[in-house]
Design a protein that fits this description.
The chain has one helix and nine strands, in the order H-E-E-E-E-E-E-E-E-E. It is an alpha+beta fold. This is Carboxypeptidase regulatory-like domain-containing protein.
Length: about 130
């Protein structure tokens, strides 16, 4: 009988520990909210001869609200500063570096309950001489 009580006592303790893990408190093992971080458009900027341009200014403008986001390309000629906060309306994306400007590209968004994804996911802009 004493052995049975010890077994049930141990099981009760285990059950209470397991139930404690079912609350809404933060836990290192919980999945992160995938809706928290906005999705970005990858924009690459190249010179007319095909070299990637560091320090180019990339601006995306929502075609309906006229709201803009501007980013600067890194040492690989890339910026991901343009994000889904401009969605769901189409955006116009263009870049400038010094006196050189790229033609504008149009990007659409495909939206679900959590995110809006840029279509296309990557835009390559080429500066005109």
């Amino acid at each position: 009988m004493g052995k049975q009580l010890r077994t049930y006592g141990w099981l009760g303790l285990l059950a209470s520990v397991l139930l404690t893990g079912c609350d809404d408190a933060p836990s290192a093992n919980r999945h992160e909210d995938t809706c928290a971080e906005p999705l970005s458009l990858r924009v690459e900027v190249m010179s007319s001869d095909g070299a990637y341009i560091q320090g180019a200014s990339v601006t995306a403008t929502n075609l309906e609200s006229n709201v803009s986001i501007t980013g600067v390309t890194d040492d690989r000629g890339v910026t991901t500063a343009i994000n889904e906060t401009l969605a769901p309306s189409p955006i116009r994306v263009m870049a400038t570096a010094g006196s050189h400007v790229t033609p504008a590209e149009r990007v659409e968004w495909t939206c679900d309950a959590c995110h809006c994804t840029p279509v296309p996911a990557t835009v390559t802009l080429q500066l005109k001489d």
